[in-house]
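Worked example 3 (structure in, sequence out).
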């Protein structure tokens, strides 16, 4: 049996495909996956790798929308990919159980505007019953999460890397859920998630070590994102938050093996799914295993890890290194997608 399928059958741990590629999602669903995600970089990569699948569709849009801007056509393509993925996942859709959902991401350029994030998320929520809406965990995003939840949008908080962000996200969504409950609105069928991009925190701290010439045990740097996620998972459970944690940005098998058994979502890129399924790793519960205190001690030498693990105010989120880098990459990915669309438009 595939290792990931074995995990989903033995434990409440769900796994999603970290792409909206139909080919990759089909592979994942056959092996126990119950969700998928998109972002501007992913959509651009899918178009680059599977352009023949979408060529006719894009050409048709260009002809049917003669006065449309590049952005309007690009967002139409993004929405189509999300809806296509949603249809594939409908058979396993369980509204309150983080199963059968696909995430579509709000415009990265709205990261400072809670009202824009809310407006776009409410619209995305109409695309399919199993849509999950991603928005960044910036200061504006934290404000938006409460309002999105209150309006019945299933949140996937993204551009999130830390325990401190995860706690602010969980609190904001909980406020939104309680407001809905107070007005007698449905919360039973909602399944919000909080992403922690574990590998991107590790990447950032490795850059910090080089930049600031700090000596730490390099093994500790592989556990920064894991430590933040395990701490958040424990506190979410203690506080009874209804948001589930979701891990993303995989860099090694540790980012899978350290979370097995948790009531959470693992969003795994296709290449890692293949590696894990073909591995000889034992599928056993590890979510409760604590990170070696020695590694935590080593990581606490880094002020940016202290912010991630212990103390960072919401007002500081926008200036945090991984937030800046990831927003840049998402914006660049979107601009690259628009370039692909522009080439089609210039033919007509």
């Amino acid at each position: 049996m595939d290792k990931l399928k074995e995990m989903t059958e033995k434990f409440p741990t769900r796994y999603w495909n970290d792409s909206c590629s139909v080919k990759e999602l089909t592979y994942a669903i056959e092996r126990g996956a119950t969700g998928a995600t998109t972002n501007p970089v992913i959509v651009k990569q899918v178009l680059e790798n599977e352009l023949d699948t979408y060529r006719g569709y894009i050409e048709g849009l260009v002809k049917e929308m003669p006065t449309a801007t590049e952005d309007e056509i690009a967002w139409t393509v993004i929405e189509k990919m999300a809806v296509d993925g949603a249809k594939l996942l409908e058979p396993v859709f369980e509204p309150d159980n983080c199963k059968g959902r696909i995430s579509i991401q709000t415009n990265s350029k709205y990261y400072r505007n809670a009202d824009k994030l809310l407006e776009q998320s409410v619209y995305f929520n109409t695309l399919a019953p199993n849509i999950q809406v991603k928005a960044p965990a910036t200061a504006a995003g934290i404000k938006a999460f409460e309002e999105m939840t209150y309006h019945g949008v299933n949140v996937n908080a993204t551009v999130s890397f830390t325990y401190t962000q995860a706690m602010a996200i969980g609190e904001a969504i909980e406020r939104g859920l309680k407001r809905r409950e107070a007005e007698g609105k449905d919360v039973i069928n909602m399944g919000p998630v909080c992403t922690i991009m574990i590998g991107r925190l590790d990447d950032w701290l490795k850059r910090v070590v080089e930049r600031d010439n700090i000596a730490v045990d390099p093994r500790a740097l592989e556990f920064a994102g894991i430590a933040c996620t395990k701490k958040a998972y424990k506190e979410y459970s203690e506080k009874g938050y209804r948001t589930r944690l979701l891990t993303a940005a995989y860099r090694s098998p540790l980012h899978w093996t350290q979370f097995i058994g948790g009531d959470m979502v693992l969003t795994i890129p296709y290449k890692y799914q293949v590696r894990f399924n073909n591995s000889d790793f034992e599928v056993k519960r590890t979510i409760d295993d604590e990170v070696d205190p020695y590694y935590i001690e080593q990581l606490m030498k880094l002020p940016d890890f202290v912010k991630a693990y212990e103390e960072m105010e919401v007002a500081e989120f926008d200036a945090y290194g991984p937030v800046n880098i990831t927003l840049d990459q998402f914006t660049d990915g979107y601009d690259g997608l628009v370039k692909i669309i522009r080439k089609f438009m210039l033919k007509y």
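Notes: The beta strands are 14-17, 35-37, 101-105, 131-136, 155-158, 193-197, 244-248, 265-268. The longest helix spans residues 321-345.
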